[in-house]
Structure formats: structure tokens, C-alpha cells
Amino acid sequence: MTAPSPTAPSVVARLAAQAARLEAATSAVTTHLTAALPGLDAEEAAAALAVAVPIPVRGAARYLEELAEHLAGHPAALTSRSSLCPPVLLRLTQVLHEGGHPVVRPGCAHCGRVRTDLRQLRPEGRLCATCDANSRRATCARCQREGMRISARRPEGGICTACYHKDPARLEECAGCGEHQNPVVRREDGRGLCVRCWNRPTHTCVTCGKTAVTALVDADGAVCHLCYNRHRRPRRPCGRCGQLKRIARNAHDGEPDLCDGCYRGPEVTCSACGRIRPCSSKLQGQPVCGNCYRRNRQGEPCARCGRTKPVNMRWPIGPLCMTCYNTVLRSPAECSRCGTVQPLIARDADGTGVCGPCVGFAADYTCRQCGRAGNPHSRGRCAFCVLAERVSLLLAGADGVVPEQLRPLATALAAAPTPFQAIQWIRESPNSKLLARLVTEDRPLSHELLDELPPSRNQRYIRQLLVHTGVLGPRNEDIERIPGWLEHELADKPAAHANLARPFLHWFLLRRARQRAAVRRYPASADRDLRRRVSVALELLAWLDQQQLALEDLTQEHVDSWVTGGASQRRYLVRHFLNWTASRRLTRELTVPSIPQQEPQALLDEDDRWSLLQRCLTDDTVPLDVRAAGAITLLFGPSAERLCHLTPNHVQRGGKHTHLMLGRHPVLLPPRLAGLLHHLAEEPLPGSRSLFAQATPGPRLLFPGLVPGKPISTHAMTQKLNRHGIPVRAARNSALAALAADLPSPILADLTGMHRHTAIRWVTYARRDWADYLAARAEDQQEGRR
After folding, report:
1. CATH of the domain at 757
2. Minimal CA–CA distance to 731: which of 592, 642, 654, 638?
3. Number of domains, the chain
4. Measured between alpha carbons, how far is 205 from 256 in angstroms, rounded to an integer?
5. How many Cα neighbours within 13 Å face the side chain of 685?
6. What is the C-alpha separation between 168 and 618, in angstroms, rounded?
7. 550 lies in which domain range?
8. Cys bridge to 264: 278, 283, 487, 764, which one at CB 3.0-4.6 A?
9. Last residue of a domain, one of 134, 166, 191
10. Residue 665 and residue 636: Cα distance in Å, rounded?
11. What gap in Å lies between CA 197 and CA 266, rounded to an integer?
């Protein structure tokens, strides 16, 4: 038996040269990787290279040399997303990405799909197999259609996909139905099954527990399509909004990647409604728009509310609709087994709530940033942490820090009781966009800065928000915003008109309005009346220009002709302007008649009034604020302005009784109405109209509005009561007429807070006409019974 021959010297030298070449290439690549990724050390880089390019692979040194040369010429290759690179870079970025390093995996140059097998290299980058096949288009040898994707080669030439699926050479007898079809899968015996006979395998999802067709099967188990999209689907920067989100449509034909929020689907004819709309879903294989898809989704009984609605999530508790799903996540409670505060997504045998980990359900709803349970929003964080981040981004200055002046506003926004609504407000509301624009101007916020903006609802909202949070000092906004409104109204008016309108407003109307506001005990909106008086004055001046008349030439005949020629009674308000011009000797003494006071026309029958009052006090289906406001109106008839400005301080509790302060003296409340007002005073109104918490000290409003710190508007309150069958004007007139029939005018004025002259007119009207009115109504009813 002969001994093995020793290795030839040439072979040893060749192996040593290969080892040195491999070591040099590995060292060069490691140097480039540690320079591009500061958080990556040399040992981790070498381990990643060993996985991406195993040493036994033939030509490993050559692959590493290509990689080193590419990294040297392209320092940003790990984050540029460019697929114009060696194939080894595709595998290396995958290994680094799985290791948690900040790299961006290259994708197909056409569709953007991230893969490690982009084999086809083009001038624009590497292509996946699908895009490569789409780029190789030609005329089909069978159907003769041009520009078709060639799927197979036949003796006559290349054929398209449609001809390939109908090719007789592919058809074979299905092992299930016996028909000649294209096989989509083969059984263990080698016989094929057509698409109708093949049942796709199902697994139990490790996240939601639902048994369905899986989208991913890995070491952790199977994951359904819904959970994959929610928790494991890769995220990339959206080409439209720029945020790191799930990509719904990959980039192609010059169009960027689009996330789920930006992608609307192709505009085709909806199979349900027949309109051409973006259709991103399908029903029975046909395109359908979003509205029709939601309308035709099949529902199941919800395990929590029992209503048959589309299923949004399947928990151990059972299928849940969207409303109950959000309710459970946003109201965590103490688990009956482990005692931790978690969303209770399961039930014990006795019906008590149990968290997911206690029943083996692998779903973590704990915020990774603050550790708070429930209220999940995005990327493992709760809505409160996301809201704090969005507030900082909204109010931060050029240096990235929230200015000291805006700290109270940032605190109030971050403490919003409904974080999801506050996040939506920051993202979508025009008010937040106006606030962001003011912050970016890098000027101290002030009332004067806001006065420079055109008058609008957004300007008024931002001003009140800044006042409510203490950023700006309070002022009588109903009066002080009139000068800014006038300047924008005079922008396109002649200079002569502006020279008259400005002193008329500042020296006459505003001076009197400020004097009245200083002594007024009850709130009253004067801005609408002031604007109407100025607008009427400007209309008169424009009419004089049309008639080629000077103001000093105005006569009584001209005034009478202009006042009676209008379609509405607002022209009678010109008497304020003419009184001012006469006192300044700009015109002669002119007379404009006052609008005669009209007596109340809308009145409720006493039976109808008491029936409505009984409904307000006992009907639980009516909203609480409507019941309280309706009952107060039906009993005491306060003005809508005074009703909306009620606070808990106006509700006074005694030993056994509760009183309401509408005027100088309290008025006794019925027990049921007192209970309604106590409930409004002690607990926030369900579905409160304001997004932000109480940010300044002081009593809370009983009827809050949309604007922070402001009550609901009188128009909104009137419309709300009318929608629930409570006619405000008729209810108020009937209540005041009933009180005036029993009380002297001084007592009526003290109890209701109205002016004494108004109280005298009501008492005079009630004692003169109320009895005749009731007698006439009673006579009409008797005739109707006959």
C-alpha cells in the first residue's frame, strides 16, 4: 500500500495566494462597512460577510473584491436604494437589515420590489424576473398581438401568457374533476389539480388565532394576510407623503412608491355602482370602489355589542367590529388573573375580562416608549407618545425646540383628552396648518400679528386657542376684532369712504360698545350689530357715488328713497351713521324711522309646552345637554346668549333645593332639572365638542363649543334644540308670557336677567293679550270637537 503523495508546491502556493486574496478582500469590505455604519464593529461586519458570502462558495474572493470596489466608489451604497450594484450587496443588505442596522435594501429598478434575486442587470439597475419578462415584449406568434409578454417558446415562435394558458400542450386531466385543465399544483402521486379543485392550505395565525390562508410562514409560525399587513409588512419612505409607511404600490413608470394612505387604486368602472372611481378592492373577482366594498362586506355578530357588522379583529373573546375593537384598545383595565392593566381581549368562565397573555394570545399592546397599556397608534407606540411628538414637530422653531412662549400651548395640546382626535386635528385641520405657518415665521405671537391676517374662522379659532392656553392675554374679542375686519373691508373701497368709515367705527361705535361692555353684567355679542351698521354706511356711500351726489347734498327725500328701496330692513340701521354725520356737521339733520317693535307671534299651547318639558326631564334617548337646555328654555325663557354662557357657578346647591342664577336673584329648580344640571356640572359632556382639556383656571362651561374656552354658539344651540323638536322661539315666548302673567315686571327682570323695559313690555302684553289668546284657542278647540 503506497503512501499518499505530498501536495505539490505549486498547489500550496496557489492556495496561499487565494487565502491572502480572500483575507485582503474581506479586510477591505469590513473597513468600508464600519466606515459607512458607525454602529457596526469589525466582528459583526465579518459575521455578516460570512453569511452573505460563505467561504466555501467558489469565487468568494472575486465577489468580495467586486463588493469592495463598489463600496469604495459608492460610499452611500448601503442607504441609496440603488440596485445598480453587485449581487452580493443585495444579500449583504438583507443580513444587515435583519440585524437591525440602518440600511436600505435595494429594490427592482422598475417596480421597487425588494428581493435578493435581482439577476437581470440593466443601465437603470437590476430587475426582478417579472419586470424583466415585461420588458421583453414582442409579437405573439399565435394571436399576432404586438407588444405582448412572451411566456413560452413554441416551434412557431414566442407566445403570450394568454395563449400559453390555452396551449393544448399544457392541458391534462385534473385528478379532481376529470376535466382537461391547466394544473396549478400536483399531488403526491404526480397527478395535477386545476384551480377549482385545489384548496389552498390554511394555518392558524400566531397573532390573531384565525385559521385562514397564510401570507407568511417563518420560525415563529404562520401569519395571516391581515396580521402581516399590520405588523410585519416592510415599510419604506412613501414617495408622496415622505413618511415611513407600508407601501401599497411599488414605483413604476416614473411614479414613486405610494403608501396605503396615498394610494387610491386605478380609476376603472366599479362593478357595483357603475361609476368610474378608484377601485382597490374586488368583490367576486370584479373591481369595486371603496364605498361599495364597505357597503357590501359580509358581517358577523360582534362578540361584544351583538350587532352584525364587518369583522375588524378576531380575539379570544370572538369577532369584533371596528367600534368595539377601538373601544377595548382605548379603555384598558385591570386583568382579573394577573392584575396588570391591559386591554381585556378575553373572558373568564364567569365573564370577567382577561388580558391576552393570560390566555396565550401573542399580542402586545404596551407602548414601547412609555410602557402605557392600550391606545396603540403606530410602530409599537401609544397615541399619547405619538401626540407629544407631533405637537413638538408642530410648534418647534428653526432650532427644533418649542419656544418658551408656546410651552403652555404645547402642554395643553399634549394633554388632550382624546389623543386620536388631536392627532387627526394636527394632521388635517386648516387651523393647525395656520398655526404651523405662524410658528415658522419666527415672530412673537401677538394679537397684532393675528390682526394682520384676513378675518376667517381659522384666525378666530387660533386666537382663542392661544388666549385659552395663556399664550396671549384675554381681550373682548367681539369688539376688538372689528377694526381688523374693517381694514380688510376697506381694501377695495375709495379713500373717501375709508376716511368716513374709520372715525365712525373708532370714535362712535367702538367707544360706546366698550363703555357698555365695561358695565354689562351679562355676556352679549355686539360684533354682528357693529359690522352691520358699518356695512350699511358703506352701502349708502356707494349709492351716493352712483347717484353722483356728495354727502353734504344728501336730503330727506334721498334717505327715504334709499331706505325704502332695499329688500330687507337692515337699511334702517343707517340712522346711526346719519346721526354721527349730523353731529359732525357733515350732513343736515336727517330722520330715519325706527323699526316698530313687533309683538311675539310664535307661541306654544300650554299642553304642548308641558308635554315638551316632560320629555326633556324624562326621555333618556335625548342628549343630556339638549334636555337641560330645553327644560331651562321652556321654564324660564332666557336668551340663547345667556343660556349658552351658563357655568357650574350658576347652579347653586342648598340643603334640599337647587337654584339657578339667571338674574339678580336665584330661581328654584325642579328636582329632575337640578339633577340634569348637576350631571353637566360634575362630569364632562359625553363626546365633548372641544378637543383640548381645560387649560386655564376657572369654571367649566355647561355647554362647551368647538372653540376652546368658548361656549356653543347661539345658532348651533338653536339648531340643536330645533332638531330635537323644541322650537326655541316659541318655547321662549311661551315661558316669558306665562311668567309675565303671574309676576310683576321688577321681579320678572330680577329673576330672568332681562332689562326692566323689556320686562314691562312682556307684562303689558301678557295681561292684555294672553287671556284673549288663550280664550280664542279654547274656542277654536271647542269648535273643532263639534
Report:
1. 1.10.443
2. 638
3. 5
4. 32
5. 26
6. 78
7. 506-583
8. 278
9. 134
10. 13
11. 31
